[in-house]
Design brief:
Distance between the termini: 6 Å
CATH superfamily: Thymidylate synthase/dCMP hydroxymethylase domain
Number of strands: 8
Number of domains: 1
Helix content: 25-40%
């Protein structure tokens, strides 16, 4: 297959980044069999994919995405990044960002821990606009090391440079087809929240660092259709099957 053209993708808006990311994974990824919901699932995967949205969208849903314009789920998902309500799930990103440790940790005196990390980021950037400390983490080691459903988003770090807010967000596991556009929209909401409260800055780049950027086999037909590929199997799988040659 040769060397991938690019492990770093930069475009102005989410739909273009999503399309190019799918193309990179489809054409240059490798097959990985991973455990998903207790079952072995075949994926095509790229390790260490970096994607940068220069102008994060305020609602743009890519064509052919699983959610459509006007979907209540789209706005609900964005709101979840700022809400501490887990809605019965083990965690939500909002709970980890706005109430880290809640219901899971105490201070050894029986008093619960609940830390609003977004409030900290706002206060830190107000204190020092050049700060490199405006970071939040989602991982709770004594809890997430044992659970079957730990967060995929690992951290959120905000920078103000040239009066623009840039966010860098590492994902340990990234369902690129199913989750990337929604993740981008939800995190855009977090950025807007910070911009509004810090003041005198505007929206800047949203940068994803995807440790495992992957597409599950059951989404391959949809991705093939988006990429106008007549075969519903990624390139590395075709090579393995001998369907094409290098």
């Amino acid at each position: 297959m040769g060397i991938p053209k690019n492990y770093s993708i930069v475009e102005s808006h989410t739909p273009a980044v999503w399309w190019k990311g799918l193309e990179q994974i489809w054409n240059h990824g490798h097959i990985a069999n991973i455990i998903y919901d207790g079952k072995l699932v075949e994926t095509v995967e790229m390790l260490g994919l970096r994607t940068q949205i220069y102008h994060p969208d305020k609602g743009s849903i890519p064509d052919n995405y699983i959610w459509k314009d006007g979907s209540h789920a789209w706005e609900d998902y964005k709101a979840e990044f700022l809400s501490t309500n887990t809605r019965g799930f083990i965690y939500s990103y909002g709970e980890r960002l706005r109430a880290w440790g809640s219901g899971k940790l105490d201070n050894n005196c029986g008093l619960p821990i609940s830390i609003d990390q977004l409030d900290y980021i706002v206060q830190e950037l107000r204190r020092d606009r050049s700060s490199r400390r405006a970071a939040a983490v989602t991982w709770i080691p004594p809890f997430d090391e044992k659970t079957e459903s730990p967060p995929c988003l690992m951290s959120f770090q905000a920078f103000i440079r040239g009066d623009r807010l840039t966010a860098i967000v590492p994902y340990r596991s990234h369902d690129f087809f199913g989750a990337y556009p929604a993740n981008a929209y939800g995190l855009t909401g977090v950025m807007e929240y910070i911009v509004d409260r810090v003041g005198n800055c505007s929206m800047g780049n949203l940068i994803f660092l995807s440790s495992s950027a992957h597409i599950y086999w059951f989404n391959w037909p949809d991705v093939a259709k988006i990429l106008n590929d007549s075969q519903e199997v990624p390139v590395c799988k075709r090579l393995k099957l001998g369907a094409i040659s290098c």
